[in-house]
Write a structure and sequence with these properties.
Keywords: Amino-acid biosynthesis, Aminotransferase, Proline biosynthesis, Pyridoxal phosphate, Transferase. GO terms for molecular function: identical protein binding; ornithine aminotransferase activity; pyridoxal phosphate binding. Its cofactor is pyridoxal 5'-phosphate. InterPro entries: Aminotrans_3 (IPR005814), Aminotrans_3_PPA_site (IPR049704), Class-III_PLP-dep_AT (IPR050103), Orn_aminotrans (IPR010164), PyrdxlP-dep_Trfase (IPR015424), PyrdxlP-dep_Trfase_major (IPR015421), PyrdxlP-dep_Trfase_small (IPR015422). It comes from Mycobacterium palustre. This protein has 2 domains: 10-64 and 315-408, Aspartate Aminotransferase, domain 1 (Alpha-Beta Complex), CATH 3.90.1150.10; 66-312, 3-Layer(aba) Sandwich (Aspartate Aminotransferase, domain 2), CATH 3.40.640.10. With 409 residues, the chain is an alpha/beta fold. The chain has a 7-stranded mixed beta sheet with strand order 4-10-9-8-7-5-6, with helices on both faces. Strands 1-2-3-13 form a 4-stranded mixed beta sheet. The chain starts with a helix and ends with a helix. The longest helix is centred in the first third of the chain and has 20 residues, at 113-132. The model has no long low-confidence stretch (mean pLDDT 97). 39% of the residues lie in helices and 16% in strands. The protein has helices spanning 3-21, 54-57, 66-76, 91-102, 113-132, 153-157, 162-165, 183-189, 215-225, 278-281, 297-312, 314-331, 359-368, 391-408, and strands spanning 33-37, 40-43, 48-51, 106-110, 140-144, 175-178, 194-199, 229-233, 257-260, 272-276, 338-343, 348-352, 371-372, 374-376, 380-383. A hairpin with a 4-residue loop joins β2 and β3 (48-51). α3 (66-76) packs antiparallel against α11, α4 packs parallel to α11 (297-312) and α12 packs parallel to α14 (391-408). The structure holds pyridoxal-5'-phosphate. Residues 56, 112-114, 117, 148-150, 200, 204-205, 233, 235-236, 261 line the site of pyridoxal-5'-phosphate (PLP).
Length: 409
């Protein structure tokens, strides 16, 4: 057996074991990560890859960011979990800092992104009942076609993706979906029983779809006029990814409710949050909502560090500057295998000429060249590297992409 054969065996065995025992709800690329640092992942065979997915933006600050891991280590040696049955010293400072970052006054801490979305929906319904005065059972929430907000029953109830929905009914009622980017459709969908409009400012899983410039300002104005909450899901788009703290900032839009997750946990722990003013979050009273792990001391210590890093603005600046480079380099490939390019900051959706292969096939080829990306919806690839990526690394990744496209032609 050659050295190469032996190496292949380590990866193959790891994948075979996972295939047998891990539920098949994902179809990962054949790369088995063993360690990572900054923007680089090393696999079980010692091969290195430039990570251009950043765990769907959960690793915005880079793998094992030293500031974040220092906070995690210190907290691991102090206190990790008491539940919300008692106070813990890290939760107040975390919520105060996050509320300040958002320009709001209250935070509801949760864990996964889907939980933040579910919690936001519950808060909106409760606000509708208690504040707006919508009669019981009548509340509706307007969402956008091709949304992605997570995987719970209620969230997939308003998905337009058959793979997310089929076989999972019966569904939760009370949602209406209208085309993304169409303010007139939004206007028509809102009625007296509408308690909220829930939007991703830029649709991530749909392929990094940026709406027309007047869309989010129009959504903001409509929600204000019609007394409905504007809930913005910044779980993937937020926390510096697009060059601002929130994607909404590109259009100067301030929602009533921010939904945050992914990078809030620093790529270390699941940490999500609903952030709003007390007129909104104040509708929750003891016993009406909760989570055993939500806002635990470890997550709160990490979250406080993440918020402090965001308050400095350097990651937003990196995303803006390096994002311009990423988009410039990818734009050079339009007509050379790329048929469309979208996105903002260090976030790009790239549609590949379907004649060259599926997004999955191109991702596999890119992985063999040392670049990890993720396909979405057939022939779209997304590039969302950790924000610590450097300019030469962006050049190298886009060079590899150009080579793969040339080879596939
Ligand atoms: C916009 C958006 N909302 C919610 C979620 C769900 O987050 P989680 O996977 O942590 O439940 C995601 C995940 O990709 C997302 O992109």
């Amino acid at each position: 057996m050659t050295l190469l054969d032996a190496r292949e065996t380590v990866t193959d065995e790891a994948i075979a074991l996972a295939e047998r025992h891990v539920a098949h709800n994902y179809s990962p690329l054949p790369v088995v990560a063993a360690s990572a640092e900054g923007a680089w992942i090393t696999d079980v065979d010692g091969r290195r890859y430039l990570d251009c997915l950043a765990a769907y933006s959960a690793v915005n600050f880079g793998h094992r960011n030293p500031e974040i891991t220092a906070a995690a280590h210190a907290q691991l040696d102090t206190l990790t979990l008491v539940s919300r049955a008692f106070h813990a010293d890290k939760l107040g400072p975390f919520c105060a800092a996050l509320a300040r970052l958002c320009g709001k006054d209250m935070v509801l801490p949760m864990n996964s992104g889907a939980e933040a979305v579910e919690s936001g929906l519950k808060v909106a319904r409760k606000w509708g009942a208690d504040v707006k005065g919508v009669p019981p059972g009548r509340a509706n929430i307007v969402v956008a076609d091709n949304n992605f907000h997570g995987r719970t029953i209620s969230i997939v109830s308003f998905s337009s993706d058959p793979a997310a929905r089929d076989g999972f009914g019966p569904f939760t009622p009370g949602f209406r979906s209208v085309p993304f980017g169409d303010a007139a459709a939004l206007d028509r969908a809102i009625d007296d029983d509408t308690v909220a409009v829930l939007l991703e400012p830029i649709q991530g899983e749909a392929g990094i779809v940026v709406p027309p410039d007047d869309y989010l300002p129009a959504a903001r104005a409509l929600c204000t006029q019609r007394n409905a909450l504007l809930i913005v899901d910044e779980i993937q788009s937020g926390l510096a990814r697009t060059g601002y703290t929130f994607a909404c900032d590109h259009w100067g839009v301030v929602p009533d409710v921010y939904l945050l997750g992914k990078a809030l946990g620093g790529g270390v722990v699941p940490l999500s949050a609903v952030v709003a003013d007390s007129e909104v979050l104040g509708v929750l009273h003891p016993g009406e909502h909760g989570s055993t792990f939500g806002g635990n001391p470890l997550a709160a210590a990490i979250g406080t560090t993440v918020v402090a890093m965001l308050a400095r603005g350097e990651f937003q600046a990196r995303a803006a500057e390096l994002g311009a480079q990423l988009h410039r380099r990818l734009a050079e490939l339009v007509g050379a295998g790329v048929v469309a390019l979208r996105g903002l900051g260090l976030w790009a959706g790239v549609d590949i000429d379907p004649a060259l292969g599926t997004g999955k096939e191109i991702s596999r080829r890119l992985a063999t060249r040392g670049v990890l990306v993720k396909d979405t919806h057939g022939s779209t690839l997304r590039f969302a590297p950790p924000l610590v990526i450097t300019a030469p690394e962006i050049d190298w990744a886009t060079d590899q992409f150009a080579r793969v496209l040339r080879e596939a032609a």
